[in-house]
Amino acid sequence: MKITEQEVRYVAGLANLNLSDAEVARFLGDLDQILEHIGKLNELDTGIAAPMSQVLYEAEDTATLRPDVPVPPLGNQAALANAPDSGAGYFKVPQVIER
User: Fold this and answer.
1) For the chain, is the Cβ count within 10 Å smaller at the N or the C terminus?
2) How far apart are CA 99 and CA 94, in angstroms?
3) At 86, which helix (H) or strand (E)?
4) Quick check: 5 and 24 in contact, CB under 8 A?
5) Total Cβ atoms within 10 A of residue 97
6) Topology of the domain comprising 5-42
7) Domain residue spans in the chain?
8) What is the pLDDT of residue 96?
């Protein structure tokens, strides 16, 4: 399975990464090896594995790891109590993505 340079640049763009030509070449090889390995895994016969089986213990399909107990929500004031900067009921954070 071959991945193209254009696909590497597309994925980098989705992740807001500006890659140099050397980095694109490196990731091209790395991603190609990963996809090749996934292709090999897809060749395995998984017919004996039960869909959505729990690997931690044997239990019913509806089993959970702990009881689901409803609790009252934290509340806006309590959530913002230790925030370094807040306003209008929201956390304020510096802008990190510019597009």
Assistant:
1) C
2) 15
3) strand 86-87
4) yes
5) 5
6) Histone, subunit A (1.10.20)
7) 5-42
8) 86
